[in-house]
Design a protein that fits this description.
The chain is an all-beta fold. Helices cover 0% and strands 46% of the residues. It has one domain.
Length: 76
């Protein structure tokens, strides 16, 4: 699983699925790579420290190589 930060600021992320969890920060325009999360079920991906000051999370039913999930946040 690759996580991309397309915001102008560093963001905090956390990943988890049954029995495991990881977290860290991604620089603006950066990427975090977590191949151990490929081909898993019920993977929760959360972000905080977004430019809007909000947090967001989503649970992916299943992950796999080549699958893409894009989450957008529009701020005025």
């Amino acid at each position: 699983m690759n996580i991309y930060n397309n915001t102008p600021t560093e963001v905090f992320y956390d990943l988890s699925y049954t029995g495991t969890g990881d977290c860290g920060t991604i620089d603006a325009g950066g990427t975090a790579e977590w191949p151990s999360y490929d081909n898993q079920t019920n993977v929760r991906v959360g972000f905080s420290g977004l430019p809007s000051g909000e947090s967001i999370s989503v649970t992916l039913d299943n992950t796999g190589t080549g699958k893409v999930c894009t989450i957008g946040l529009y701020v005025e």
